[in-house]
Amino acid sequence: MKIFNLIFCFLFIVFAALQYNDPDPYLWVPIYMYTAVLCWLAAKKHYYLKAYLLGIAVYAVYAVFKIFDANGLIDWIQLHHAANIAETMKAEQPWIEESREFFGLIILIGVLLLNYFVAKKRVNILLSK
User: Fold this and answer.
1) Predicted structure pTM score
2) How confident is the model at residue 56 (pLDDT cuts 50, 70, 90)?
3) CA distances (Å), origin 45, targets 6, 67, 93, 109, 128
4) Chain-centre distance of CA 114, in angstroms?
5) Is-contact 29 16, C-beta < 8 A?
6) Count of CB atoms within 10 A of residue 53's CB?
């Protein structure tokens, strides 16, 4: 898990840095950095179950919003027939940006969920001793 967390910590810092030209970096830099910090701490064997749950809850609510947003995931699937959103780095259409943000949130949730379950297992093992 140490290597997993170090890799994702690095990736999330890079993702946060790439937000400088995003329309809403004030939102996405903290989103990516929150999980980067939790990954760094997990790599150092410091686990914060409530922090994982907070991140999961906030990101899940935001992901649901991205599903139903006017240019969100449903729009991408129904109106744009799930067109390639990774063809170019520049998001030329709003539905491209919104769909990418949705999948970014899903990745963040997945990493936090994995860390949560690993941490919970380790805590339970320590408590049973």
Assistant:
1) 0.83
2) very high
3) 12, 34, 42, 19, 18
4) 12
5) yes
6) 13
5-14, 29-38, 88-97: least confidently modelled range: 88-97
- Both tokens of 76, joined, read 């991408």
d(CA 119, CA 55): 15
In this structure, what token pair is assigned to residue 21? 């030209």
Tell me, what DSSP letter sits at residue 21? G
Q: Does 67 have pLDDT greater than 90?
A: no
CA-to-CA dists, residue 120 to 25, 39, 42, 47, 126, angstroms: 32, 15, 12, 9, 10
**What's the whole-number mean pLDDT along residues 101-118?**
94
Separation CA 6–CA 103 (nearest Å): 21
Q: Which of 126, 129, 122, 125 is nearest to 49 (CA)?
A: 122
Give domain limits for the chain.
Answer: 2-128
| DSSP-assigned letter for residue 44 | T
pLDDT average, residue stretch 82-92: 55
